[in-house]
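Weekly modeling sync, notes
Attendees: S.R. (lead), two postdocs, one rotation student

Agenda item 3: backlog of single-chain predictions. S.R. asked that every request posted to the team notebook include the full sequence so nobody has to chase files. The rotation student volunteered to paste the first one in as an example of the format we agreed on. Action items at the bottom.

Example entry:
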Amino acid sequence: MHAHGVRRRLFGAATGIAAAAALLAVQAAVPVDAGIARGSFHQTNLVSDTPGLAKFTDKNLVNPWGLSSSPTSPIWVSDNNAGVSTLYRGDGTAVPLIVAIPAPDAPTGGTPTGTVFNTTPSDFFVTDAKTGKTGKALFLFATEDGTIAGWNPNVGGTSATIAVDHSAVPDTANGAVYKGLTLGSVGSNNYLYASNFRSGHVDVFDKNFAPATLAGKFMDPNIPSGFAPFGIENIGGQIFVTYALQNAEKHDDVSGPGNGFVDVFNTDGTFARRFATRGTLNSPWGLALAPSTFGNFHGDVLVGNFGDGLINAYTPAGVFRGQLKSETNAPIQIEGLWGLRFGNGGAGGDPSTLFFAAGIGGEQHGLFGTIQNVG
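Predicted structure, as returned to the notebook:
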């Protein structure tokens, strides 16, 4: 959900015609599997909630944001407007498991955004308040409700369990809005990092989900007022943070050409360097490091724009190298682009393949697919 729960329902009711028109435009613009002509990259639509738009149809794939996986698992997708996480293999086939993400005051209806696999051996345990069952969260989810939830099948079954509830912190009118989530370590201590779009800060939690104070505060004094942490990803042991312009409610972004920054921080929160400034950025959110097999952009950091659906490529030093283009040499443009993630070499797909998630049709629908180098 890219709006409060009530706003989401009102938006869906009031703008159905506009969303439908936008969806038709998307259907016309992105065929299921366009033939190879020329160029470097090829887009394939694997799954959508809209019949005919992709190879497979899944009604739960509504406004998918974050993507995560273990070294061998299928890809876990945060379905923001469906309040669940769905799982897909690298070929787009669905895994029967559907995990419900709770709202702060209900067992369902949460608004997941970022997600991460828990790589730690014994940290981030979740406990069911009613049954007392406890266990290590295998997958973790941040939500726009201001919560962080963890999933362990022996604790919640097919439901995640809320471990952090900052929906009313500092108060109900200004509760946290978590847009992204990643994991990192300082020495032998593991931490979760959540981008709080409303407060304009990165919230850090220790292995017990308690707020943590680190040496740095993830601050860049040269980021203009009104821009806030949006996407967040651990790349090569450093925390990459994207920034987008806040709207008046400090809940959603205001897209536009040049509306974006990317910073790099150390895992202790100290500022390392500015990575990208304005330019082709437009509400950037998705982040991924391209492998050596990814054509002309091998080894580059990919930054996806939610604002215009384009994917920017930078060297690890932050030098802009261009945008991903299709076989027709036109930029690959995916409306409502959110998550970017390369396959894991297991059930989560070929490690040379870039997977993407997008909230098409004004975030009222969803698309999950791949982008592959074709020479």
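Discussion: group reviewed the output briefly. The CA atoms of residues 56 and 93 lie 7 Å apart.
Action items: rotation student to repeat for the remaining queue; S.R. to check formatting next week.
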